[in-house]
Amino acid sequence: MAGILQLTAPEPFLAITPDWVVWPQTVIRVTGLLEILGASALYVPRLRRAAGLALAAYAICVFPANIKHAMDSAAEASAFPGWWYHGPRLALQPIIVWWALWCSGVIDWPFHGRRKSPD
């Protein structure tokens, strides 16, 4: 869903993009497309592992934008959506990385041997 929004309504994503990102509008569109392709590739057995690794790397790479969004929001007392959203979002970022790796079969932790790969 976020990938589609990055292509159709990139303004909120541009607002949280750190200043050091070169060509932010292009980066937002390209990353939106890559997010859609990565999610779609999870359905293709021979691409699943690469997709999981790419989506995990993507989640790590967007972490600076999430931090910037949280800091900008914290600077404004009336900012929406506020810390109730940003705190859990930042804390759950490692779980998003894990989820991409687990869904793609790259790792099976903490469920060692409980799941068979759909390949």
From TrEMBL:
Bilayer disposition of the protein: Multi-pass membrane protein
InterPro entries linked to this entry: DoxX
Keywords: Membrane, Transmembrane, Transmembrane helix
Pfam families: DoxX_2 (PF13564)
Highest rank taxon of the organism: Bacteria
Stated name of the protein: DoxX family protein
Subcellular location: Membrane
